[in-house]
Amino acid sequence: PSRTMELFKDINRRFNAFVQKIVQEHYTSFDKEHIRDITDSLIGHWGDKHLGWWNLKHPLTCPLVVNKCLVHACPGFDTVATALSWSLMYVALYPDIQKRIQEELDQTIGRERRPRLSDRGTLPYTEAFILEMFRHSSFVPFTIPHSTTKATVLNGYYIPKDTCVFINQWQVNHDETLWKDPSAFNPERFLNPAGTELSRTESEKVLSFGLGKRRCIGEAIGRWEIFLFLTTLLQQLHFSLRPGEQVDVTPQYGLTMKYKKCESFQIKQRFPMKSSP
């Protein structure tokens, strides 16, 4: 009955067809002695293990390669790109927040080297900003669908076996009983009173990667990628919006929620580039 669900299913059908085409092209030109990318690697792995090379002319008879590519493309690439897109929009919308992140980067890392994963624990405000970006944008509003393996009761609601269920992450991230002024963008809500450390209690309330044993398997690498890309960008560049232009950040529905294409970004180099180890 939901038109929105039909849109979601249509997006998935079109995306699946897109990935199938890419996989087909890789099969056609596949050379096991010259692996070009992750799709070739998957073809080689599953071809050797399951298909035999005589089946390479019919790659879609084995959906494993297509499904593996989908698993990497959807959560692995689109979500990281969307997270970075929202991050840059927020620092452009809130220049004082951008300035504080860059001051923390300058004081902790300096300008002679690039950020590393080992810097995460020394950049509490930057980490708080990333958490607030996850919470405020909630660009993955629902988890991927799961299914109940047995009949269960949750908070008084009976859920039969084999029921398709989603976690409404957007609602949790904007629940007024959990968050003070949830509509405001405020990274400091994740810091201790002194502003020197992340509050573990507040941090664990943010839902972006699901819950429990079936939460996103790529959560760790996703967080690492976002941290490294964002800190590197903000260390080197300053982001702003052209003065006087209105920016529409109303989320657009899709596999992830993105804002409309923005032509108002201005990017400036913060200081002369230097080679780094």
The CATH C-level name of the largest domain is: Mainly Alpha
CATH structural architecture of the largest domain: Orthogonal Bundle
User: Taking all residues together, what is the mean pLDDT?
Assistant: 86
Query: CATH-wise, what's the superfamily of the largest domain?
Result: Cytochrome P450
Kindly estimate the percentage of residues that lie in beta strands according to DSSP: 5-15%
- Overall number of structural domains: 2
Major sheet attributes = 2 strands, antiparallel
Q: What general outline do the C-alpha atoms trace?
A: globular
Give a count of the beta strands, DSSP E runs of length 2 or more.
Answer: 6
Alpha carbon gap, first and last residue: 57 Å
Rounded Rg: 22 Å
Strand and helix order:
HHHHHEEEEHHHEE
